[in-house]
């Protein structure tokens, strides 16, 4: 059995729910065949989120880590390719912190790439009927903080571990005016199960050689 740690965030920015945690909970409650999945909720707080992630990795000893975050306005599930070593918060986190142009890890490398087969993960979700795309920016808020921090943990403490970050759209209940895209967490969870099953059996170096690039 492949041990998986999946994380989602607590609500932030005045929201009452966070679809990343809703989806993570659903996947843990009904994991794909051959995988054991443990879900952990991360605080939407710079620093503390990585402490919670590190504690969860120690407790679970996973083979694979998938961290989820909310990306309101995106129409589908987006697999992040890279995390950047910068915190630049447009809004305060849940502890009132608002770092500007600060490194996630002082003296760390500029970026870490996901160690998941990102293009194969996107293809698996699409095949499962869930809208998905590859993303080349995780933003500069707490999501990117965790995406980069996970990469740093893998590079410096857990070289056997594979992991990456995925953004999910708003849940329908968060879109009160009906003008922004959304996806029910149950549909997101369905796509994530396909993603995890693919990631568990596909090393990053055997990722699909298909175009998922962007011109801007």
Automatic annotation (TrEMBL):
Enzyme Commission designation: 3.4.19.3
Active site (record annotation): 80, 143, 167
UniProt catalytic activity: Release of an N-terminal pyroglutamyl group from a polypeptide, the second amino acid generally not being Pro
MF (Gene Ontology): pyroglutamyl-peptidase activity
Matching InterPro entries: Peptidase_C15, Peptidase_C15-like, Peptidase_C15-like_sf, PGP-I_bact-type, PGPEP1_Cys_AS, PGPEP1_Glu_AS
Pfam families in UniProt: Peptidase_C15 (PF01470)
Positions in coiled-coil regions: none
Subcellular localization: Cytoplasm
Keyword vocabulary terms for this entry: Cytoplasm, Hydrolase, Protease, Thiol protease
Function statement: Removes 5-oxoproline from various penultimate amino acid residues except L-proline.
Family of the protein in this entry: Belongs to the peptidase C15 family.
Oligomer status and interactors: Homotetramer.
Name of the molecule in the record: Pyrrolidone-carboxylate peptidase
Gene from which the chain derives: pcp
């Amino acid at each position: 059995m492949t041990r998986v740690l999946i994380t989602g965030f607590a609500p932030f920015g005045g929201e009452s729910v966070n679809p990343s945690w809703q989806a993570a909970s659903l996947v843990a409650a009904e994991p794909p065949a051959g995988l054991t999945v443990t879900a952990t909720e991360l605080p939407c707080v710079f620093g503390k989120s990585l402490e919670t992630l590190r504690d969860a990795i120690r407790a679970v000893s996973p083979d694979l880590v998938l961290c989820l975050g909310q990306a309101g306005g995106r129409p589908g599930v987006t697999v992040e390719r890279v995390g950047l070593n910068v915190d630049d918060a447009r809004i305060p986190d849940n502890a009132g912190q608002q770092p500007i142009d600060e490194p996630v890890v002082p003296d760390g490398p500029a970026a870490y790439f996901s160690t998941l087969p990102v293009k194969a993960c996107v293809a698996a979700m699409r095949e499962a009927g869930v809208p998905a795309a590859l993303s080349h920016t995780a933003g500069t808020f707490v999501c990117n903080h965790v995406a980069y921090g996970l990469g740093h943990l893998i590079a410096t403490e857990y070289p056997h571990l594979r992991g990456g970050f995925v953004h999910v759209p708003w849940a329908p209940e968060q879109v009160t005016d009906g003008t922004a895209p959304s996806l029910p967490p149950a549909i997101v969870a369905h796509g994530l199960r396909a993603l995890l099953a693919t990631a568990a059996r596909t090393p990053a170096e055997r990722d699909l050689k298909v175009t998922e690039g962007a011109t801007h």
